[in-house]
Protein 1
Amino acid sequence: MFKKLADKCIPDYEIESFDNITDNFLNTLKNKGIKAIFLDVDGTITTHYGIKITEEAKQFLIHAKNKGFTLAYITNCDSNRSEIVSQKFGEYVDDNIFWPGKYSNSIWTDWLLNIQNRKPFRQAYLNAAEKLGINIKHCAIIGDQYSTDILGAKRAGIRYTIKINNNLSSNEPKKKRFQRKFENEVYKNLLKYTDKRPENI
């Protein structure tokens, strides 16, 4: 059981910054059939609840789009936050935004339905791929959390997962910092149950 979970949480690649993603790496993804790249928002392209995209992320999005990749955001933000993200960062992607859940202002029955469309549930990714008209096997993802971005993507069958450790978490709320610290400790323990390790780009 632990080995299976460990294999699902370990990314294929790990990077410290979007600057680590080279032109050669993007060419490799294209040659392996990757057509779309999904991106997390908070902690990946911006600070937690930030409204300004990092320069490194901006340059990556522009370059990846010019290389012919279809780009889209997948975030667990509530609807209000997602609207802000869409307005601020929508110009850099092909489809403005996917926000898998809006349960913060939904009635209970809606919450039960929407929670299944949030990361790490696979439906968040499957819905996004279907909306773009791209097979999930031809998608990659970049995100900052093992327990949502990476786990959910692997459960959905996304071919390449990229974990970014770009130190954008300094402005996170205390609760989020605790969650991240706990997640990292769980991840370290899961490594004991598998020989799989992420590659560095």
Protein 2
Amino acid sequence: MAILDRFFGPTRDEIWEKLADEVGGDFYDGGFWLGESKVRAKVGYWIVTLDTYKDHRNAIYTRLRAPFINKDGFIFTIYRVGSFEDEHAADDSDVQVGVTDFDDAFVIKSNNLDQAKKLFSHEKIRDLLCDQPEVFFNASKHSGWYSADFPQGVGELLFQARSEIKNLARLKQLYELFGETLDTLCQIGSATHDKTGVII
């Protein structure tokens, strides 16, 4: 095994198991089938789940998700300028935070301009997003395409990236991003600390 590690490095599951240990979560071994392994960890008042899935083109995505109480229906999506999502955007309008470097690097779509500005005025959130080479991060009023239906009032915070993420430091930053974002959503009145009753 040591010889194989020298050539190929640790596997995804080995890295994810180490991640679970370092963030105080649980690793669930899915065995052979891609997408069944996951990490579930408590971040503040919320449970953040890391797993993978394949889309209809058989492309692999890594995703992190956290159900939360969406208090006011605030939604947003943020991605990098020049990304696949940017090139296929339906309109050209986006939120400007007022931080030039950040505004030049990211596109933000939202149904509430003021709340989006408040959220992304948080420097730590901006820094964590800037550290990610690929970003698709959004908050919804309901569950996403690949989630079971959520109860009324329960939204989903989602981060996804193409391919498997096997960089431990990057994964830890993503868990930190979820914690900072959910805390800030509570501070600006768009979320609560209440339990959702949903485990994914």
Protein 3
Amino acid sequence: MQAEPQEGELGVLVSSPEFARMVDRFQASTGLKLQVFDLDAHPLTPVEDYPRYCRLLQERKVCPLYNDPQFLKRNEETMGVCKAGVGHFVAPVRSEKEVQIGAVLGPAVKFAPNSVEELAELAFQLRVFPDDLIQAADAVQEQDAEKLLGAGELVSVGLNLLAEMQAAERVGHTLRRLQAQIAESNSQMLSQHVVDAILYLTRADYALVLMLDDNGADLASGYDQPAPDRLVEAKRRLLEGIAEWVRHADRSVSVPDISKSAWSRYLTDDVVKEGSIVGVPITEQKGKGTFGAIVVGFDRPREDLEEPLAALESFVGEGLYALMMGRKLIQAEKLALLDGQSGAHSQAFLEELVEKEISRASRHNHDLAVVLFEIEAFEVLRGKYGESGLSRMLREFV
């Protein structure tokens, strides 16, 4: 079986040099090379050449590794029994929040005597001659279970420490980059910087940030997806609807499968058929209130939403100061008449100017025409082409 492309927190762990050293130490101690699977039994590392006994079970779809959804879900390192005395060393891989996200697995071994009666019963079920199955089981390489568990305990401890270290490093790196961007940004780009940070941190397919002013009115929002498609507007409506609920309820929410969520289908007019959603509120210190929400979306259903949820909660908790400073920057620039970087008149100035012109025309009974141009998916275009690219587009249009 081919290894799956590595993604998410589990993929980061597997590709790290620290994990490679753990695998080497386990192999030096036991002679066996560890493999990594996600909880759906998709391999993230090359898989062993299975012995004939395993192939017999796999061909008949009774191998517990691939056909029992609970086989990889473990509370601690143990010997997972396939049948009789044959099985695998199994140890859970957890996130920094102690949520299992995968498992490390040793090759199939014979770690206890094989019961002829048990194997014969299985052979009848599989319509395999009993001697063939018994001989295949006895031919599996032998290993001492206690030796495997002893070496595996060190792997489990190392994996837990590695998960905590990498999660902290990723959040810290994201926040440092965001803080630098805020220091050099303006209010128009700040929401985009936050969205970019969220996409990097969670590896989501699309994301939205919503910020409110002191009166609870919308202050700024940003949406982006690295690979825009024809569903971009529907996906944005979906995240906007979830964000409104999150900020109203002031609590996090997870939607593992959009297709099973009537509210999600309603928000997109049944255009977005599949995917999953995670949203968290941006809450002020000491629970004084909520001034926004962050929501991310994935293009496929996911049961393991604890990982992106934990990442978002850490981002908001540890990056609250940066988010509050960004919000203050937006509020200050909203009140200014000129944009600090371009020198152009601000939206507040233009709105005030339009009100004055309407009032003047009304008083003097003059005709007045107002033309408004709106750029759809502005944040997506800005993220794709940058400020300079958008400026060129506007100049060509004018």
Protein 4
Amino acid sequence: MFPVRDADRTGPGHAHPERHNRLKGDLACSVHRGERLVRQQIEMTTGDRIWHVFNTERRTVWIGSNP
């Protein structure tokens, strides 16, 4: 995973909320660098997704691969 800082100052999911999906069950959270973070997907095109976790306190989004 790599950080994306201040990419969207309006908050996660603001521009196209229908394309931002909070995951459920075992996929809802992820531990990254010892912190438990919320995991979401962004739908880019049909079938293509970006998986990410975000830390709201640090205003940092970590983009990674499909678990």
